[in-house]
Amino acid sequence: MLQVLNPATEEVVATVPAAGPEDVDAAVARAAAAQTAWAAAAPADRARLLRRFAAVVDAHTEELALLEVREAGHTLGNARWEAGNVRDLLDYAAGGAERLNGRQIPVRGGLDVTILEPLGVVGVIAPWNFPMPIAAWATAPALAAGNAVVLKPAETTPLTALRLAELALEAGLPDHLFQVLPGEGPVAGNALVEHPGIAKIVFTGSTRTGRHVMARAADQVKRLTLELGGKSPNIVFADADVEAAAAAAPMAFLDNSGQDCCARTRILVQRSVYDRFLALLAPAVEATVVGDPLDERTQMGPLISRAQLDRVRGYVPEGAEAIRGKAPEGPGFWYPPTVLTGLPEDAPCAVEEVFGPVAVVLPFEDEADAIRLANATPYGLSGSIWTRDVGRALRTSRAVRAGNLSVNSHSSVRYWTPFGGFGRSGLGRELGPDALTAFTETKNVFLSTEA
Ligand code: NDP
């Protein structure tokens, strides 16, 4: 059994049975049968059912949000956004079912067309940091493209995914088309990766586990999308609106308690404005409201688990220079907002993914130095660039090796724009106009007119 704890109180919220390899076998067999009929349905019918699923999610956003608060410790505002994001993903993907067009390519002696065939049964392995949206990022387009989905949520956060599967049935989706199997990663997750009936794995989590999944999937040349870690820069040039950059910097790494693969945890500041930036940043970090996730004024909740709390603590060097906010005492996995200064560029917390409310500030000299520092990690997921110079914004955007950049803002993820990483941040892209094609194989068909 899996025990689900409320990270803000350490109280047991639920216990859930853990799936073993035999449960994965049975689920994949049921999914395969459901997928055959689903793929044969008219695209407009698939779209209609997915829109109905979106409407049912919409009617349950508050319930889903409260469940996310209890199992993941997310602030209520964030959790409401997340439930709405699931609805929007389903709506957006539904439209894709009706627009999954192949091409007609000019040839001599016939007609050549491409057909985007569904893959079959897709295995989704989701993390605990955004349990609902990340599950839906893969599930919505996979279903819309004519696939079935077996989803393994993280051990710590299975409840919203289980509820979404119930809501799918309430909306009229066929039985077994979307199944949720809570379980341990090395058991249920691994069984999905190794199962010959699973055509593709979409994995979101650590680079370490992602590498393992990739190696195990290689035996069957299994299709993969990997959304892995990040260590994203927030580059502040001297010509920027420094006040605006400092005001926005805290929530760019504190949102979701820093448990965000896009968190801007490397704040790179041009040396000529470094002291001014820190003087503006300190009160903004100290003023962050950390506490009860159900209080609408709260900006940051707890970390997900004691293991994560210990991991985050382990990254902060004893006696380091720091700006620190406040965090509650007592039960719950709390860590205060923390900004470290005066560290070497290659300190572990400056180059590795901490996944907690901890950022480092490093000075740079000029544009070339900023780009060098921004690219000095094996990751390449996100980043922000603050400058008033349009040419510099464009040059830096081109030079930083990352999949999702944002100028004078910290936006990264919209369901209608592509998302994914360079380097060890992942493989493939999710979301955006091409989300469905990642769940298809392109088949080319030539029809002769000569016979
Ligand atoms: P993992 O990458 O281990 O977990 C992500 C998912 O993979 C979970 O569902 C997990 O299951 C599953 N999993 C674990 N082992 C296997 C396996 N052998 N085969 C298949 N699936 C598996 O992350 P952790 O929870 O251990 O978090 C550690 C660190 O990873 C964080 O501190 C953070 O740096 C990074 N991380 C990054 C995320 C991102 O969005 N990029 C998301 C989550 C973590 P289970 O829950 O049972 O372990």
TrEMBL record:
Which keywords are on file for this protein? Oxidoreductase
Boundaries of every Aldehyde dehydrogenase domain copy: 3-445
In this protein, the active site sits at: E227
Which family does the similarity line name? Belongs to the aldehyde dehydrogenase family.
Protein name, entry field:
Aldehyde dehydrogenase family protein
Q: Which organism is it from?
A: Streptomyces omiyaensis
